[in-house]
Amino acid sequence: MRRALVIARQTAIFMSGLPSSPNLTPVGRLARWTQSEFNVALRTSARPDGTTMNDMMPWKFFSHLSDEELRAVFAYLRTVPSAPSPGK
Ligand code: HEM
């Protein structure tokens, strides 16, 4: 029992440090980014407002994508229907 409580507490501490998932559909702030801002964010983690993304977002892997691949991902995200959320 005590072990379960310790694990629950550690999990709560870990989760509280995690960033919330952004809304990548057209109701989120990503919809206001340009293609080149998107490319910079996925390659360097820097958002247009100068902040950087948490490393939970595996941007280092996406930094290997070509311009054409990033254009395809960006274009795809523009086709996803809006999904309201309380997030960003
Ligand atoms: C093609 C796949 C993906 C795309 C296009 C993508 C795109 C993005 C973008 C544009 C943001 C910034 C949004 C904003 O700040 O409003 C973001 C943030 C984030 N992404 Fe991804 N992502 C992808 C995959 C993933 C995966 C696989 C994970 C985790 C397993 C992940 C986790 C996160 C997290 C946790 C954030 C928030 C970072 C923060 O607020 O500091 N993403 N993603």
Summarize the structure.
Helices cover 48% and strands 0% of the residues. It is an all-alpha fold and 88 residues long. It is elongated.
Describe the secondary-structure layout.
Elements: H1 2-16, H2 35-44, H3 59-62, H4 67-79
Helix pairs in contact: 2-4
The structure holds protoporphyrin IX containing FE (HEM).
Span from first to last CA?
Answer: 38 Å
Structural class: mainly alpha
Shape: elongated
Tally of DSSP helical segments: 4
Describe the 3D structure:
The chain has a domain at 22-79. Helices cover 48% and strands 0% of the residues. The chain has helices spanning 2-16, 35-44, 59-62, 67-79. Helix 2 packs across helix 4 (67-79). The longest helix has 15 residues, at 2-16. It is elongated. The model has no long low-confidence stretch (mean pLDDT 88). Bound molecules: protoporphyrin IX containing FE. Protoporphyrin IX containing FE binds next to loops.
Keywords summarizing the entry:
mainly alpha; 4 helices; binds protoporphyrin IX containing FE
